[in-house]
Design a protein that fits this description.
single chain, alpha/beta, YbaK protein, 5 helices, globular, 8-stranded mixed beta sheet
Length: 158
């Protein structure tokens, strides 16, 4: 597998017939700032969260930027009692991407993907595997390419 994260993302998307756009962007200190830099609303930026199961396997949870993960909803959909966010070094080992750049596309392991229902039917921005870049993709195409489970797994922030 190509060690360059952007090439990994491009190659993985191409291998699944997934059309993506990678766009360089300035560093942002927050999700609202990143959204403003890209001319988007925070809901248009989807966070890819790496979630650890108790058996030391992982999954990806795709959550809109204006919402938070709902642990009870996600546990129900996954069918487990316990889930947690791993330490950054575990997330890196599980995906090959640093936190803040994680995306299911090109991950070193194809973990199951769970997508919040609110992203369906939208063009979204997400991590691109490398700092200073955003990836744009049609959410429905991403869901189809990865066989993602679509369910209500988020809640309003605050």
């Amino acid at each position: 597998m190509n060690p360059d994260p952007l090439d990994r993302v491009r190659d993985a998307a191409a291998s699944r017939g997934l059309a993506i756009e990678l766009r360089e962007r300035p560093a942002a200190n927050s999700l609202p700032e990143a959204a403003a830099l890209l001319g988007l609303q925070p809901a248009d930026i989807v966070k890819t969260l790496v979630v650890k199961r108790s058996d030391d396997t992982f999954l990806f949870a795709l959550i809109p930027g204006d919402r938070a993960i709902s642990w009870p909803l996600l546990r129900t959909v996954v069918g487990v009692n316990k889930l947690q966010l791993p330490a950054p070094e575990l997330a890196l080992a599980a995906t090959g991407y640093e936190r803040g750049t994680i995306v299911p596309i090109g991950s070193t392991t194809d973990w199951p993907v769970f997508a919040d229902t609110s992203i369906v039917g939208r063009r979204i921005a997400m991590g691109a595997g490398a700092h200073g870049y955003s990836l744009f993709v049609d959410a429905d195409e991403l869901i189809a390419a990865y066989g993602a489970t679509v369910a209500e797994i988020s809640q309003p922030t605050g």
